[in-house]
Amino acid sequence: MKICHVVGARPNFMKVAPVLRVLRGYAGVDQFVVHTGQHYDFNMSDVFFQQLEVAPPDVNLQVGSGSHAQQTAEIMTRFEPVVLQRRPDLVLVYGDVNSTVAAALVCAKLGIAVGHVEAGLRSFDRSMPEEINRLVTDQLADLLFTPSEDGNANLVREGVSPEKVHLAGNVMIDTLVRMLPAARQTVTADVPERFVLVTLHRPSNVDDSEWLDELLEALAGIGQETPVLFPVHPRTRQQLGARGKSLAGARGIRLMDPLPYLQFLGLQTRATVVVTDSGGIQEETTFLGVPCLTVRENTERPVTVTMGTNLLVGRDLQKLCDEVERALNGSGRKKSVVPPLWDGHAAERIAAVIVGEAVAAIAQG
Ligand code: UD1
Questions:
Q1: From 240's CA, which of 59, 112, 187, 254 has a CA 20 to 30 Å away?
Q2: Count of structural domains, the chain
Q3: Residue 103 C-alpha to ligand 1 middle, in angstroms?
Q4: Ligand 1 centre distance from Cα of residue 193 (Å)
Q5: 195, 93: one domain
């Protein structure tokens, strides 16, 4: 059985790593990795392959940046010949980035089976590009692997046949569990005893300059009291422009380049509170039991709120500052349960389904 894994953007790399590793243990499974090149900076891509001990991709489509239409179309155009030449039996796509939907579309049109890892998540907010990618990918996929029960319910409601849907658990947590000891060792002596860890990159936060200014001002205020560590995503770096300079000069705020996986995970384990708009970080903080304040009105990962440490602060900056304060003085939310099947074994369940389906197909002739 030949399996093609398609990845393109930073959060995909932590998800593909455990699936590749587990499938390697099955005789008769031949696999290759296509990197679309959606993310291409060393510290947004290569360093993840190195740290996660994933071999360099077999094919790199080198699409680079562009508008959504350009990027999606370019991935499709460059991916199609690879699929036609290599003829995989199954293409696995990950998460909700443009690379995910582009590859799924190519395969659906060619009649090649698609598996979606991290299926079924919904923010119910179609102004998010990722929500469009999730909806379309899940309609096209033949095998859908969900990280939590809410994903199954969403898919059933959208008319996806339940036989295609498999509750597998969270592959990102597989990687976290494996890498946690190494991540803890990266924490250097200059990391403050107590600090606020910040990441922001969603268009809804960083492309709206008025709102970004207000948010940065609030962070600068927080930095007066407690150190703020802020690894800056390339998209955010562009939007910061001149404001970045004054922010970098603000007392208590440490702006830095995007961090490698282990270093960032190490910081998460030690953070007093995390402020973010990332999806994956909502999950990682829930697993680690670290308070997380999400600067969004909604989340496609509701279990991080109902079971975990996540709180949506939306655009309420007073709430953000109050909740940071509560976390710093120890009166923040303590409730945290790790969601079912976020146990480090999701990739094993995914591999078992894939290989089981292949065996069943052979039996049916
Ligand atoms: C993408 C995903 C988002 C995910 C995020 C993780 C989509 C629609 N969005 O957003 O879901 O949370 O990745 O990081 O797929 N850039 C660089 N170097 C790079 C990559 C990007 O400088 O290696 C710059 C480019 O100028 C580009 C901008 O960052 O225009 C945004 O990159 P893009 O891939 O379009 O989306 P992200 O914002 O990274």
A1: 187
A2: 2
A3: 17
A4: 32
A5: no
